């Protein structure tokens, strides 16, 4: 099963945007996410609409932070991506009248709701500046890896 890596990829991009003073193109940033520019722009649309980044077209254009990393939380980005699923399993609904199935579904639903509430609370406590490594590699490292086929 494929995992949804949009949240991780967008956080990666935002932290790199916090390290530069000039806007970066969709092509450059798409490379850091291992995708193409069109998918990158589609993924970032909600982040832009929420006001965390801005994008300008034309010469000298590109993507830039609209707010400092210290003002953006993991929760902000999670919500801007329309709350990607945290869990990959769901409830069975073959026999809705079965008491065992209902008990299992209730236990799973309640537990997942509690776990999601914990994620949401913790995501709200972590700002993106807290994720910046002391010795972060420059974005050029990603461009080099892309050209090597990594």
Automatic annotation (TrEMBL):
Q: Which Gene3D superfamilies does the record cross-reference, listed alphabetically?
A: Winged helix-like DNA-binding domain superfamily/Winged helix DNA-binding domain
Checking SUPFAM superfamilies in the record gives: Winged helix' DNA-binding domain
Q: Which GO terms describe its molecular function?
A: DNA-binding transcription factor activity
Task: Cite the InterPro entries for this sequence.
Answer: Tscrpt_reg_Rrf2, WH-like_DNA-bd_sf, WH_DNA-bd_sf
Its GO CC terms are:
cytosol
Q: Which Pfam families match?
A: Rrf2
Name this polypeptide is given: Transcriptional regulator
Print the organism lineage.
Bacteria, Pseudomonadati, Pseudomonadota, Alphaproteobacteria, Hyphomicrobiales
